[in-house]
Request: fold
Amino acid sequence: MARAACALLLAGLAVAQKANIPLPDVAGTYAIERLPASSRHASLTDLTMTDNVVNLRRGTGWSSSAAYLQALRREEDAVDSVRTANGSVNLLAGNAGSVFLAPIVVGGQSFDVVIDTGSSDPWLVISNFECIDVYNGSQASEGDCGFGPTYNPAQSSTYAILPNENFAISYADGESATGSMGYETFRMGGITVPKQEFGLVNSTAWNGDGVSSGLVGFASGAITSAYPGDNSSADTNVEPLFYNPLFYNMFQKQGVLPVFSLAINRDYTNGGVLALGGLPDVPYSPGFASTPIIPSNLYNQTSGQYLYEFYTVVVNGFGFSNSNSTRFNVLGVPNSQKKPLAGNGTLSIVDSGTSIIFVDNATLAQPTAMLFSPPGTWNPEYSVWNVACNATPPIFGVSIANKMFYVNPADMIVEQGPGFCISGVQASFGNLTILGDVWMKNVLCVFDLGAEMMRFAAREFDGLTASAIKKPNT
Reply:
């Protein structure tokens, strides 16, 4: 949601170690604010398979938006007792996240960038940048910021300066990036966008992954970070300048359909695919469930700053049972033969930068943990529900637009280390409900920006194969 929304994670049963993950200090009063929806009502975009596909890989660390969601979630649980001196929190990797990296060519130079669905700006770090220590503000070596190769505008014939504008963004986890604005030719997934505005970062406080060289935002709105003038220190209380993010230019100027889709893989070494302008060639079940995107921002009520924009949808409810024969009442009409759903009408963030599912503890996380065989146990040190690694998991599903999307049992047990496992459904101690990778690995997520809808189809469940029936225009 920032560096991450479908932005930051542990995949399947991959074994991870306990990690010391930097989390933001939550200073001030924050809220997830629901924004007014557009008055226009465009039709659903016709979905077809596209060759404009980007193969993703996973990087370690947080997307900044996902990190901030976790900090807010854990603040409710009084986790200050486990904070380290530098403001970190000792977290299990499954409670953390990871970033998705995608290849991109900018001005003829190749990079990996973080894909973030919680922010809008494209930016790259440039040669000879200044690295600042995230924790104490002192100057550090370039290697301490953990970037991959740097962009050099002098090596590009298509770069142009954008005068009298500067780039400045401060992420909620203490990271920041400042620099200038420019034009450059971007190429991603076989789509070329000339004269794309972007940030050239020459000073940054960053906890990089050692691979990525910047970020490309895919948020549904446009919280861009360009400001008038050449001095980023003068940007306080100044309205940012709007410009088209990369994907907006793809569909507004390059004829790409206004949709992108995400299919996350269970294999940790293969992150999945991002399809631009259509669907990837992956098996999925017939029929999509379509639901409006609810515009939602993380809003700092103290400073008045909008930080991240999330892809948020209304969930009809959640179903859980220890019996494979259970039928859930997804329509909500009286039916004694079907089990009612819990958490009806929950506003939920769809975030690939979060590894697991976070839901209300009393009504969902705890009763789900109790249905494992043997039952799960609460771990107060890490605020998670532990389960036996060889446990039999319950059935768990998420109902959207009156269609149930089940989590594969293989994803319900997340291994943290030899003999140490947690439930894929964990407690959110505030009001944040997050559908992370445990759920997203089982669906094809379509972000239909033209119709302002999210669309989901089941995949990797019920024995789907490459020959599965596909009906994309539903």
In short: The helical segments are 64-75, 246-253, 361-370, 409-412, 437-440. The longest strand covers residues 191-205.
